[in-house]
Specification:
Elements (H helix, E strand, L loop, with lengths): L15 H17 L5 H31 L12 H33 L2 E4 L7 H15 L6 E3 L13 E9 L2 E8 L7 E4 L6 E5 H7 L9 E12 L13 H11 L5 E7 L4 H10 L7 E4 L7 H6 L26 H7 L2 E5 L5 H12 L3 E8 L7 H11 L3 E6 L7 H14 L2 E3 L6 E2 L3 E8 L2 E9 L11 E8 L2 H16 L10 E3 L3 H17 L5 E6 L5 H12 L3 E6 L16 E6 L4 E2 L3 E4 L6 E5 L5 H5 L1 E7 L3 H16 L4 E4 L5 E3 L10 H13 L21
Parallel strand pairs: 1-6, 8-9, 11-12, 12-13, 14-25, 17-22, 19-20, 20-21
Antiparallel strand pairs: 2-4, 3-4, 3-7, 5-6, 7-8, 10-17, 11-15, 15-16, 16-17, 18-25, 19-23, 21-26, 23-24, 24-25, 26-27
Helix pairs in contact: 1-2, 1-3, 2-3, 10-11, 11-12, 14-15, 17-18
Length: 707
C-alpha cells in the first residue's frame, strides 16, 4: 500500500461506529415507511433496539475501556476514543428519540386503528381492567417476584445486564428508603386484558407490577415507582495465550457479563429525582450515560408482539424457500454433485440440501470422514444431530466449534461437549484467531477411489437464520478444492500447512494480499485501456488498507460498485479519489449476509465468494475462506445476483457525498425489489417455469447509479 499514502488522509474516511449508527438509522427508516405492512414496521423498530443494545455492550464498552486506560490513538477517520464516545452519545440520543417518536406517534395510533390497543400506563385502566390485572398480579406475578429494600443491613443487589427493573421510593414515618424489584423474564411481558369489542387490548407486565407494588412493601407508603434498565460491558477479555483450557476460560468470562461496568442506564423521562440520584450512585453511572426514555424501556418486546395471532393481514407472508432444480429428481445427493457443481442461494432456495449433505454423509456406509467448521448453529440443530450420529456410526468426525462466537459462546460450549460425548474429535477454535470460515468436507470411498465432497458457504450452518439471512453456497466434488479442503482441516487440527494451494484463499495467511493484487490489477488494466471494473458485496467495509486500494483504483479509472449492508468507512464523490465509486446498502425483510467479489480482469471476469468482509478482523484475525466460482453457468448466476441488486430501486439506500444515505426517487424508474425478485425467480425455477439461462433481467455491466 506504500505508493498510495495519499489516499490514507483521515478526511477520506468515516468513523466506523458512526457509520454503524447510520446503518441502524436505515433500519429505523423501514419502521417509519408507511408503504410497509404495519407489523413489519413494528419488527424493524424492535431490531433497531436489539442492535443498539449490542452496539453499546460491545463497541461503546470497548471505547470506554480505551479511555479508561488512556489509549488515545486516533482511528482511520482521525477521531480519538473520547471524541468517538462524545459523537456516539449525541447520535444515539437522536436515534432513541427517533425510535420513540416512531413508536408513540406512528405505530401506537396505527395499531389501535387496526384493532390492537397497547395500554401505555396502568392509570388508563377502567374498573374491569383494574380488577383483571390485580387478580393476574396476585395469581401469576406476585409469587415470582423478589422485592428488595435497600438499607444499612441490606446492600444494593446485583442488577443483571439488560434486565428490566422497577425502582421505588418508600416511606415509613420519617424515614425514606429505596427499593428495587426485577421484572421477571420468565413471564410474558405482554399481557392481554379485557377491552373493547373487536379489539385486542394488551398491557406490559411492568405496568401491572407498578400498579400493585404496594403489595410488595406492605408496611411502607410507596411515594413513586419507575422502571429502569442497565447495560453492562459485555466485551469479553479472553487471555488465550495464558489460558490452560480455553473452554474453562470462556466459561469464567461469561459469568463476568452479568457484573461488568454499567455503561448505560435507561430510565423513564419523568423519573423521580431522588430515585435517579440513588440509582446513579449505586450503579456508578456517569451523567452522560443516563438515557431518559419517553415510553416503555426495551422496545425488543415488539418482536413478541409481532408474533401475536390474528394480525396476519398486517404482516408480509414470508415466501417458502424453493427447491434447488439441480437436486430434484432421482438419484442420491452425491451423484448429483458429481454431475455438476451446485449453487445454493438462501433463503430463496431451501437450506435443506446443506442439512441433507451432512445427514446422508452420516448414514452412507461409503463415507469415511466428515469435517466441518461451526460458528453459529440453531438451538436444536439437525446438523449437530447428524454429526453425532456419524460418529456413533463409526465415521471419523472432526468439528471445529468456535467458542469465541460472540453471544453464542454458551450455546457452542453445550454443543461441543455433546459432540465430544458422541465420539467426535472437537477443536475449540484456535489461539488468537476466530474461525469464521464456513466449510464442510466429506471423504467418500467410491469405485474409482477416494472422492472428496465439499460445501463452501458465505453463511453459518444455522438452519434457523438460513430462513432470514441471504447467503450463498456451493456443493462441489472438484478435486483441487477437495485437496485444499483437506489442507484447511489439517492446518486447523495440526498446524500443517501444505507447500501449495489450488483454489481456496485463506485469511489470515494471504487473503488480504490476494484482494490487494486483484484490485491493483484492475487499476493497471484501466491505465492500459482494458476493461476494468469491480463489484463487491459484503456486510461491512472498514479496512483502511483495502479502502486506500479502492481509492487508487478509482483514481486510475476503475468503475467500482459496492453493495455494503452495514458499516462503510469509504466516502464517495471525492474529486480525483472516489468519483468512480458508488455504494448502496440494501435493507429489506431478509438480512443481506452474502459476500461476493467480481473483478472484470480485462474482459475475462473472476468471481469469488467467501466468509470474509473487508474488515481488519476478517483479514488479519480470523480464519476465513474465499473460493472462486469457475463453472460458467454458476458464474453467470452469481453475476446475475449482483446485477439485480444493483438494479434494486425499492430497498437500496444510496450513499451520498455528504455521508447520508437516500432511497432513490422512483419517478420514471422500474420498481424492483431484489429480495422479492429472487423469491419469485427461485419459485419459478423450482416449478420448471423458467429455463436456468433464459428469461433473465440483465442490467448492463456499466450500470450507472442514479442518486
Amino acid at each position: 500500500m506504500g505508493e498510495y499514502k495519499g489516499f490514507t488522509a483521515p478526511e477520506y474516511y468515516y468513523n466506523r461506529e458512526l457509520s454503524w449508527l447510520l446503518f441502524n438509522d436505515r433500519i429505523l427508516n423501514e419502521a417509519r415507511d408507511r408503504t410497509i405492512p404495519l407489523f413489519e414496521r413494528m419488527k424493524f423498530l424492535s431490531i433497531t433496539a436489539s442492535n443498539l443494545d449490542e452496539f453499546f455492550m460491545i463497541r461503546v464498552a470497548s471505547l470506554k475501556d480505551m479511555v479508561n486506560v488512556k489509549y488515545n490513538k486516533p482511528d482511520l477517520a482521525g477521531m480519538r476514543p473520547s471524541e468517538q464516545l462524545k459523537a456516539i452519545n449525541e447520535k444515539a440520543r437522536e436515534m432513541i428519540q427517533g425510535q420513540y417518536n416512531t413508536y408513540n406517534r406512528s405505530l401506537l395510533p396505527a395499531l389501535r386503528a387496526n384493532g390492537l390497543q397497547v395500554i401505555t400506563s396502568h392509570k388508563q385502566l377502567n374498573k374491569e381492567q383494574k380488577r383483571f390485572v390485580d387478580r393476574y398480579f396476585m395469581e401469576m406475578v406476585y409469587p415470582v417476584l423478589t422485592p428488595m429494600a435497600v438499607d444499612s443491613s441490606r446492600p444494593f443487589p446485583l442488577i443483571r445486564n439488560k434486565t428490566l427493573n422497577i425502582g421505588a421510593v418508600l416511606n415509613k414515618g420519617e424515614e425514606t428508603e429505596m427499593a428495587t424489584v426485577q421484572v421477571p423474564g420468565v413471564l410474558d411481558r405482554i399481557v392481554e386484558i379485557p377491552g373493547e369489542k373487536d379489539t385486542v387490548t394488551v398491557i406490559l407486565l411492568e405496568e401491572i407490577i407498578m400498579r400493585n407494588i404496594q403489595q410488595l412493601f406492605l408496611n411502607y407508603h410507596i411515594e413513586c415507582a419507575y422502571a429502569y434498565r442497565i447495560m453492562r460491558n459485555a466485551d469479553l477479555t479472553i487471555e488465550e495465550d495464558e489460558a490452560a483450557d480455553l473452554l474453562k476460560e470462556i466459561q469464567k468470562q461469561l459469568k463476568k457479563r452479568q457484573w461488568g461496568e454499567v455503561i448505560r442506564l435507561e430510565v423513564s423521562d419523568d423519573i423521580d429525582k431522588r430515585l435517579l440520584k440513588w440509582l446513579k450512585k449505586e450503579l456508578s453511572v456517569r451523567e452522560e450515560d443516563i438515557f431518559k426514555i419517553n415510553g416503555p424501556l426495551d422496545l425488543t418486546f415488539l418482536m413478541k408482539m409481532y408474533g401475536h395471532a390474528g394480525f396476519e393481514h398486517l404482516k408480509t407472508i414470508p415466501p417458502k424457500p424453493a427447491a434447488v432444480p439441480q437436486l430434484q429428481g432421482e438419484g442420491d445427493l452425491f451423484s448429483k454433485i458429481r454431475r455438476q457443481d451446485i449453487l445454493l442461494h438462501h433463503p430463496y432456495q431451501s437450506f435443506d440440501p446443506v442439512v441433507e449433505f451432512v445427514r446422508q454423509s452420516a448414514k452412507d456406509p461409503n463415507v469415511l470422514a466428515i469435517k466441518q467448521t461451526l460458528y453459529r448453529v440453531s438451538g436444536n440443530s439437525p446438523i449437530i444431530a447428524a454429526l453425532a450420529q456419524a460418529a456413533e456410526n463409526g465415521k471419523q468426525v472432526t468439528v471445529l466449534v468456535e467458542l469465541k462466537a460472540r453471544f453464542d459462546e454458551e450455546n457452542n460450549i453445550v454443543w461441543a461437549k455433546m459432540l465430544e460425548k458422541a465420539g467426535c474429535h472437537v477443536i475449540y477454535g484456535l489461539v488468537g484467531l476466530k474461525t469464521h470460515s464456513k466449510i464442510t468436507l466429506v471423504v467418500r470411498k467410491e469405485e474409482d477411489g477416494i472422492r472428496r465432497y465439499v460445501h463452501l458457504g458465505t453463511g453459518n450452518y444455522n438452519d434457523s437464520t438460513a430462513k432470514l439471512y441471504t447467503d450463498l453456497g456451493i456443493l462441489t466434488c472438484s478435486e483441487p478444492i477437495g485437496q485444499d479442503a483437506t489442507a484447511v482441516f489439517n492446518m486447523i487440527s495440526g498446524y500443517s500447512e501444505p507447500l501449495s494451494w489450488n483454489k481456496l484463499v485463506m485469511a489470515p495467511l494471504w487473503l488480504r494480499d490476494r484482494f490487494v493484487k486483484l484490485i491493483r490489477r484492475e487499476a493497471e488494466n484501466a491505465a492500459e485501456g482494458k476493461p476494468a471494473q469491480i463489484i463487491a458485496k459484503m456486510n461491512s467495509l472498514c479496512d483502511s488498507g483495502i479502502i486506500a486500494e479502492l481509492y487508487a483504483a478509482s483514481a486510475a479509472g476503475v468503475k467500482i460498485q459496492l453493495i455494503v449492508r452495514g458499516i462503510c468507512c469509504l466516502k464517495v464523490g471525492i474529486p480525483g479519489v472516489s468519483d468512480n465509486i458508488s455504494v448502496r446498502s440494501i435493507v429489506g425483510n431478509f438480512l443481506e449476509h452474502g459476500r461476493i467479489f467480481y473483478f472484470e480482469n480485462g474482459g475475462a471476469p473472476k468471481v469469488y465468494m467467501g466468509s470474509a468482509d473487508w474488515m481488519p478482523r476478517n483479514l488479519d484475525k480470523r480464519v476465513e475462506i474465499m473460493f472462486p466460482v469457475e463453472d460458467k453457468n454458476l458464474k453467470e448466476e452469481v453475476i446475475h445476483i449482483l446485477q439485480i441488486q444493483l438494479a434494486d430501486t425499492m430497498k437500496a439506500h444510496i450513499l451520498q457525498p455528504d455521508g447520508t444515505y437516500l432511497k432513490q426517487d422512483l419517478r420514471g424508474k422500474t420498481k424492483l425489489c431484489a429480495q422479492e425478485y429472487f423469491s419469485q425467480e427461485a419459485a419459478e425455477r423450482a416449478a420448471g417455469e423458467t429455463n436456468l439461462m433464459k428469461d433473465r433481467v440483465f442490467i448492463p455491466r456499466q450500470h450507472e447509479e442514479t442518486t
